[in-house]
Structures are given as C-alpha cells and as structure tokens.
Specification:
78% helix, mainly alpha, 124 residues, 0% strand, single chain
Length: 124
Amino acid sequence: MKKNQEEKQKKTYDWTVDINYEIFQFRHSTKEGEPERNLYLAVILQALLDATHSTVGYTVAVSGSIQSQADSWFFTSVSAHASDFNYVCDMAGLDPSYTRSFAYKIIRSKEISFIRKRINGLLS
C-alpha cells in the first residue's frame, strides 16, 4: 500500500520540483576544502545560466549565440566540446549523462526565471 502511494507521488511531481531538488543537491555537494571540485561545479552551473540566457540587455543575436554555445557544450557528443564537457563533469564528480539530462530538464523548464535565481544563489 505504501509503495503505491510513493509511486503516485513520484508521478505527480513535475520537472520543476525535480529541478529544485537537484539544484539543492548541488548546494550540498559543494564542500569546503574541495575548491577545485567547487570550481568545476560552478562551471556547469554557469553554463546552465548561459543556456537559459535571456535577451534582457543583449541583442537577440548575442543572446542566441550565448545560448547556442552553451547548448552545444552540453549536448554535442562528438567534438572538443564533448571531451571538455566530460572532463568538467569528471572533475566535478558528476556523471556526464546525468548532467546532460539535468541540463535538458532545466533548459526545457517553464520556470526558467525561478531556476536562474536558484542557480545564481548557489554561485554567489
């Protein structure tokens, strides 16, 4: 009975809840005494901000270029971007495929402004 209730709860969660939890997990994965790992986590979070970049204060071309470069970094599987991405994930202690799916959820989320605020909070 309890198992069925848990499964129903999991099905009712939307991506925003999952993303909120996963961003919370990023916060807890940063530890003092691990400055290099924290640096690479910050690189990933900044790339997420770039991938969800708004056009406020930028021309559409510049904003699109920033988003395109970040998308390419996350989702290109064969290029220098892919090896850089895998290296950064490795140094951050994250699985590259998990990080890609996390990025996909964030980029496709309807709560971009809320998520950007959470990520900015982690980076500050």
